[in-house]
Write a structure and sequence with these properties.
This protein is α/β, with parallel strands linked by helices. Helices cover about 45% and strands about 15% of the residues. Strand 5, helix 6 and strand 6 form a beta-alpha-beta unit. The chain is globular.
Length: about 230
């Protein structure tokens, strides 16, 4: 049985509500890119609509300013939407300037954060020095995007879990998984959370299915699709 918490990652309101009522996930995340792709135009309206139903599971919404003062204003507004909201703050702005000062300032004010776009051990080391034991914070390490560079993310994730263990309120999140295997890898690393797109969540029932059955399913798929396409030689 998986120990890791599955968080649904997306911006489809109906799908989020469906997963919530099913009880198949333990939280939700989204970001401006996902919301824009889903056609969301009213950022606050979308968030409040979702939060009107999902009141007892954590949901992360992200600031989108590139200016730290404006990030703070947005963070406080997002925080006001609900007690179950984590505010996503990127580890830097687009100029590569560190967000650490803002992160500490918001944590000192009791804002629950999700630090996003974390990739490097240097970034993780800086966060570890910054955090205090009472901080309620998620550290989103983009393991999938790290793997895209040809770097194995598992040593980084294992080390992060070990290094942040003294910070009881800090949770390590495996972000941007690329395949269902990543769920089991993240669990093996001891990560607290993994974000999953709807596509990955739909593959969970395949766990443990005999490979011979998967082989036959695949052959049947090829045969069916060729027939439906009307192929002939």
């Amino acid at each position: 049985m998986l120990k890791i918490a599955l968080f649904a990652d997306g911006a489809d309101r109906d799908q989020m509500i469906k997963r919530y009522h099913e009880g198949s996930v333990r939280g939700f995340t989204t970001n401006p890119t996902l919301m824009a792709k889903a056609g969301v135009r009213d950022y606050a309206g979308f968030a409040r609509d979702v939060l009107a139903v999902i009141k007892d599971l954590p949901i992360s919404f992200e600031v989108f300013s590139d200016d730290f003062d404006e990030m703070e204003r947005q963070a406080k507004r997002i925080q006001s939407w609900g007690a179950n909201v984590n505010v996503k703050i990127p580890i830097t702005n687009t100029r590569g300037e560190s967000s650490l000062g803002l992160i500490r300032h918001l944590l000192d004010q009791g804002v629950k954060l999700n630090i996003t776009a974390v990739f490097t051990e240097e970034q993780l080391g800086s966060l570890r020095q910054l955090f205090r034991s009472g901080d309620d914070v998620i550290v989103s390490i983009f393991a999938g995007r790290i793997a895209d560079t040809g770097t194995d993310p598992m040593p980084i994730m294992r080390k992060a879990v070990r290094d942040f263990a003294p910070h009881a309120g800090a949770k390590i999140l495996w972000a941007s998984p690329r395949e269902a295997l990543n769920i089991y890898q993240a669990d093996a690393c001891g990560c607290h959370i993994i974000t999953c797109t709807e596509d990955l969540l739909s593959k969970l029932p395949l766990h443990g299915k005999p490979l011979s059955e998967r082989s036959l399913d695949t052959v049947k798929m090829f045969h069916r699709d060729a027939a439906q396409a009307g192929f002939s030689l």
